[in-house]
Every structure is written in C-alpha cells, then in structure tokens.
Amino acid sequence: MKPKQQVKRVPNLFDSRVFPVERIELDGVEESFLRGGRNLFPLLPKALAGISQIGVIGWGSQGPAQAQNLRESLQGTGTRVTVGLRTGSESFMKAKAAGFSEADGTLGEMFSVIAASDLVILLISDAAQAQLYKKVFEALRPGATLGLSHGFLLAYLEAVGEHFPATVNVIAVCPKGMGPSVRRLYEQGREVNGAGINTSFGVEQDLDGRATDIALAWSVALGAPYTFKTTLKSEVVSDLFGERSILLGAVHGIVEALYQRYLDEGAKPEAAFNRACESLTGPIRQIISRNGLVGLDEHLDANGRRDFRRAYDATYASFKGVMAEIYDEVVSGNEVKSVVMAAKRFSEYPMTTIEGSPMWTAGADFRRHRGQIKTDVDGFTAGTFAGAMMAQVDILEEHGHPYSEIANESIIEAVDSLLPYMHARGVAYMVDNCSTTARLGTRKWGPRFQAILEQVTFPAMVDREATPDQMPERFLTHPVHEVLHKLSEMRPALDIAVT
Amino acid sequence: MKPKQQVKRVPNLFDSRVFPVERIELDGVEESFLRGGRNLFPLLPKALAGISQIGVIGWGSQGPAQAQNLRESLQGTGTRVTVGLRTGSESFMKAKAAGFSEADGTLGEMFSVIAASDLVILLISDAAQAQLYKKVFEALRPGATLGLSHGFLLAYLEAVGEHFPATVNVIAVCPKGMGPSVRRLYEQGREVNGAGINTSFGVEQDLDGRATDIALAWSVALGAPYTFKTTLKSEVVSDLFGERSILLGAVHGIVEALYQRYLDEGAKPEAAFNRACESLTGPIRQIISRNGLVGLDEHLDANGRRDFRRAYDATYASFKGVMAEIYDEVVSGNEVKSVVMAAKRFSEYPMTTIEGSPMWTAGADFRRHRGQIKTDVDGFTAGTFAGAMMAQVDILEEHGHPYSEIANESIIEAVDSLLPYMHARGVAYMVDNCSTTARLGTRKWGPRFQAILEQVTFPAMVDREATPDQMPERFLTHPVHEVLHKLSEMRPALDIAVT
Q1: Which domains occur in chain B, in start order?
Q2: Which of A418, A444, B129, B445 is deepest in the core (most CB within 10 A)?
C-alpha cells in the first residue's frame, strides 16, 4: 500500500566546470553522477584552485580515513592536508603516528588549523559539533568552505534555531560507509582503479558558484567510485533513518529475534548463531554485494525459497510500520533532540554494552572455531533481511529520496561496509562501537524490530507447508534490482577485505 | 546517584472555602489533601453552586465511570449530569443502556451538551481532543468550566503553540486508575465508605477563585478517598511517564524478559508464566496493595530474599537509565509529538496486537486451569518489579513531583487499578486495549525494558550463592514505605475485585 501523501521523485541533476558529469536513469527518473577513479586526480588542482590548505578536524571514524586519502590523492599539488585536533589528546598522538606532524605544518591545534584553512572538513563527533559549533564558526575565515560528512549539524542548528555563518560556503561530502571502509577500499583502489566507497554531496551555501566543484574534488580525492547529489537535509534524514533501520538497528533486532527463533525450534546455541547471524554477515551479504538481492534466488533450493518467501511475506509490512515511525521521528527533529538529551545524561547514566548478551556469548564460542563449521545461505534469515531491506527502500522512495541515495543508504552501504565489519568483529561490536548517534539509535530501535518479530510477526506466520516454493513475486519484480545492477556497473567488483 | 540538577520538592498546599482540607508531611515536605467519603456529599451543592448542568463528553474508559459516579453522587441536588456524544454512535447506545436518555435531557449531541453545560468534563480520547479542541473551545459558554482528566490537551496545545480560551475556568481532576476501577471501587464504596480511586487535581485557569472548590467537588463526587494537588503540566508528565514505565511499559517488558529467563532456566511454559506473570499480578500485587512494598519481606524465605536482592540490585540502575530517558522524552514534548504523528499513520499502518505472542499463548493455557496451580511470591520476579517501581519513584522524586503524585502514579495506581485488571484479563489484553496514547507508549518502551534486562542486566548478574539472604538495605530504608503507610491510612483496606 502506498502512503496517501507520497512524495514524487524528481530528476536529480547537477553540472560541473571541471569534472565529466554523466547521467543515468534510475527507475525512470534521471540523475546526474560523477564516475570517480584515479584518472581524475589530475583535475583536482583546477577544482581546488585557491585552496592551499585543507584542514581535517577530528580523528574518529572518518578523520583518519579522509585525512590519509586526501593527503595521498593531493600529493604534489598546491594543496596541503593538515589535521587539527585538541593538543595533547590521544588522537593527536595517533595522527602523529600516521605521519602528520607539527614540524611540517600538517598537524596542529584544532582552532588554529580551522583559522588557517581554506577548506575545513569538520569530522568531530555529532556531540562535539553540537558543543563547539559556535567556536568553529567564529574561527572560520570569510570566504572559506566548511565541509561536513553528515547533515547532523544542519539538523542540530534547525533544532536550536541557529544558522551557518553567511560568509562561508557550506558543503557536505558523505561517504556511504564507515571510515575504516573508506580507507580500506581506497587502499585497494591502488591496484583496482575505482575501488572505493560511494559518496553523496550536497551544497548548502555557495558564495561564488564553485562549491559543487570543491565538493566533487573532495569526493574524488576520497576515492569515491560514484558521487551523486543530495541536500544536507535529505542526507541527514536518510542517514539517521538508515542507521536506525537496515544498517544497524534492524540488523541488531533481526539477528536477536532469529537467534531466539532457531533456539525455540530446537537448535543448539552455536547452530542458531550460525543460521541467524553468520549466514547473514557471511554468504547472504556476499551474494547481495556481488549479484544484488535477486542473486539470492539461485542459491536457494525449493525449501530455501519457501523459507525465504514465508519470512519475506510476513516481515515486510511489520518492518515498514516500524520504519515509517523512525522516518517520522527523524524528519520531525525528535530524533536529533533525543540524541542531544541523551548526551546530557551520559555522566549519570553511562551507556552499557550488549556484548555479554546470550547470543553474543554463543557468537564468541562460534567464532573461536570458525571455518570448521559450514555456513549456508539460510532462506528464512535471507527472507527476513530482504524484507527489512525492501521496506527501507520503499519508505525512502515514498518520501522522494533520489534512488542513488536509496540504493546506497539501504543496500550498498550495508553489504559493502557495515556487514563486512560485523562479520569480522560481530554485530554487538558494531553496536557498541559505532558513533554515539548511531549507537543511541540502534539501542532505541533494535529492540522494537526484535519485539515486533517475536511478539507479532513470527507467531502470525503461515505454515511452511502452505508456502509456495518460489520467491515472492513483488520481491523479484522490484525496480531496485535494476537500479543496483546499473550502479554496480559503475565500480569494480571486489571482495571487501576486513582484517 | 543523584542527578546533578535535582529539583527540590516544595510544600504542595491548597485551601478550600467548602471542604475540610488537611495537611500531611510526606518525606519531610508538607502537602495539603482532602480526605474523601460519602459524608462529604452534603457539601457538594455549595461547591457546585451555579452549576446546573455537568456535561460529561465521551464514553471511553473514564466516561462511563465518571458519568455514573457523578449522577449517583449528585442525585437530588440542583446539578444534572448529562452525557454528550456523537449522535448515532455506538457509545450513544451504550450511554442509553446505562440510563442516560434524550427524553429527560441527560443525553445529547456532543456540541449541544458542551454549549448547554456549566462544567464540561472532556473525556474523549487524546487523539479526538487534538482533532476537535477548536470546536470544543468555540462551543464553551463564557464563564463555564472546562474539566479534563489528564493534562494531555495542555501538552498538545503547547506543542502546536495554542492556548485555552481565556473566558473559561480550566481545571483537571485525574483519577489515578482506569475508568473501570473508578466505577468498581465507587460501587464498593456504597458498603465501605471511602473506597475509591485517589485523584489529583490541578487548576490551570481560575476566573473567580472558585475553580479549586469545583475541582474538589468533582473529585469527591467521583468517590476519591484522597485528593491531592498538582498542576496540569506535572500531571501530564507524570501520567505519560508512568504509563510508559511501571504501569504498562515496564510491566510488559519485565514479564516478557522474566518469562524467557525462566524458560532458559528449564521451566516449562506454564510454570514460567506462573513465576513471571501470575506471581506478579497475583500475590505480589496483593501484598504491596495491603502492606506496601516492605510487606514482601515477610513473605520470602532466605532463598527468596536472596533472589529478591539479586534481581533488585541488578535491575534498579538499568530501569532508572531507561526511565530517565522516558522522562526527558515526555517533558521535552517529543512523546506527545510522537503520539500525534503515530495517529496520522494508523490508516496505513494499523496497530497490531501482541496477544498471539508465545508468552500469551502459554498464559492462555495457564489461565484455563487457573486455581489448580499454586502461585507463590517469586523472589526474583518481586525483586525485578520492585527495582522498576523504586526507579520510577526516584526519577519522579528527583524531578520535584509531590510525593502524593509519586506514590499514586508509581505504586497505588499499579497495585490497585492496573495490575488487578491485568490479573483478570492478562497484561497483553491491557496493552492491546488501553488508551491509544498509553498503547503507543507501551509498545515503544516495553521492548526497551525487555532488551536491557535480557541483553545487559541479567547476563551481568552475580551468582545466587554470592548473594546475601537479606533484602537490599537501600530498598528497606527507602522513604516511600513511610509515605505509602501514611497514605494507606487515608482509605479503607479492601480487596480490589475485578470481574
């Protein structure tokens, strides 16, 4: 069923004076995009003309990745990459260890670096942005460009009734993957041209018409194989929504509910973990990454297809209901307000970790003799996960997001960035170690996904015997498959290595 | 640990020109209160002088109870009680069946009744109030009194930047129990003077200094054994907070988590249900209602005390963390905004029920041969529930709510209204059939309580052998016990009968 007030997607176009922008039609709507690659590096100096210093502020997840990628891509150009951090902080030592130094002017105190940079890439945490934005704005030179990798600051300023200073450009380049993936795939890109994490870019303030090219240059220098346009508002909404849904929140809820379900069916803890979690972060994720969601079809036998259909048909609507709620909470500003309030409670109520939960204890046992146990594509797990993924795709589509954003935020970021890390380190590790904003969102919404599956969706499911042994028609014919196929042709196929 | 910005409780006083107001000291802070009872009925005409018609608008949970109680209490006075509803609605027929009739002017179309009444008691649902408030305000006579039984409309008006009309009194009388309890205990009050549900009252607008006495008369006529003062803001915050916490949300999460825990320990479904749910809504609730929380002490043996302490010590801080979040979400207006947004999604995403969940299926089996199975006070269940109750008491106390409100909203309403109904009909029935606002809140927060218990609190718990066999000191010495004892002396002891 479509919502009554569906927002129609419109052509999502942009031009560049420097880069060869192409067009693509995604589900009938045209979008501009820039195909990245090291072959574009010679164009960077033109796009960044007049920018003699890029200040990368912060050393969390994105900071180390972006600072190192930019330094490498801009080597030998007139643009220096300088990291700005609190002097004496632990991060300061880490940046030093990564080769940034006070001696050669590539490392310095945060606000001095901001004041001395033509492009300031602000990668401190959401909470730190909320706390320090006034000082940052004051330090910015008139005519400089403020760069963000996430629309959070815009949403925060809206919530408190403030604005960006009128004297600077404001742009965003938002990698659709965690910092470590941005770095890891860039490194792989040395051998395979075009390997990298896709990004979206947005221009919020443009003083002299050059903001788009600065953003595109930043994105190319990060190694993005595919850059598409968004707005800061659309980005922050899809980003906060996505991490609360398929990227973290839904995955967390799904694996917990499936684990309990398989236990209830009589599986031993390690076998239940294998079906619920290992299958998802392993073979299911790999197949979607290589061949898209429809790739799951050929890996399932008749019983597997029956399980897939049963799970998909039952879960899709439940997921969509929770996700419609998440979308409303995000777009209304409630969710940002919640994050700000939560940060104020941390001194009294510190966040707890979930790594000691029964499933993660079983997971830790499982992982100790990984490789000795075979992990198949579990049809029921795949159907549940696909139900959540498609629900997210449809919610974003119904709210008018461009399909590049939908596909990246709902599928590509999941299978090429988050899930490989979850496979390497565990879903619990991700939930306990992602950004504070994501972590709060996951802990808030994960249990909602789990509860609706356990208390409503699974108990109401039809019998396996009554389920046809084909995949659901509305899954197989969904336009996202064609979109994914087109987008996958834009970048080299490679295995995401997480070590 | 106390929060940094604790709000100090202050004396909570009021006077009356008609009723014999008394004073009580609760945990060192003075409060005024009115002891109710049928002996005060002769004072009602004086307090309601000039009010020839009370219009009771709505026939949901509170409507039937308040209309019937008021009619009975005001029989033979100059004040008529008239029910106002949508003509031709199902409610209209129900009100007729309860003896209200168009012929004698005690039943009519909603807005005509509003326009013809001197005191309008607005008991339509929160969603309907949000939808119809403008029409209601327009229909009110200048000089009339608008009565609410919940501060929701104030919170809603704040959220949309609107105000009550300046030409009317605005008061609230808020029974600390569901409508059916308000009616049932009033009926029991015919034999046992003073039986009834406690209420809080608040005066938001007072045109001529008579608003307090009108509110007190309304409360006495409902059968409230104990009436205390609050503000509409304090009421709506404590009410929304309470139903999301101990009254519904926390209970729902607790029984689900305990049920799973007992299953994991090897119990069969019915035995797990007996320990997790039946023990709570049965003997644990009865003991607290009769002898307060400390009454649990004498019902437990050494092992039971060990279980109680283990559960209490582990859960209290976890509950408090979630409840601190709920309190912030409510007081910030986020929660009201969420309810309003959710109501707009219902046509596309109807609310589902939880009655088919595995626990409720086991519960239905259990209930079919209830009486054949003995139900004891389970120490672990009691300790978990007490942990949640005390966490709620402390959160409200730290935010400066008067102790009458704290005790009623956290303990008395639970054990004398909600839990007896849960015992009779099931927790799932309550969750699926309470007000939309409460239902949304329960479905949002119940899973959060469940998840933190299952994933964080229970796995981190100390061994039973390492636990002393005394109740926790900080539980036994909590000031709420003395408060409860004082309040219990204000009303007759009687078993809450739910049929």
Answers
A1: 21-229 (3.40.50.720), 241-487 (1.10.1040.10)
A2: B445
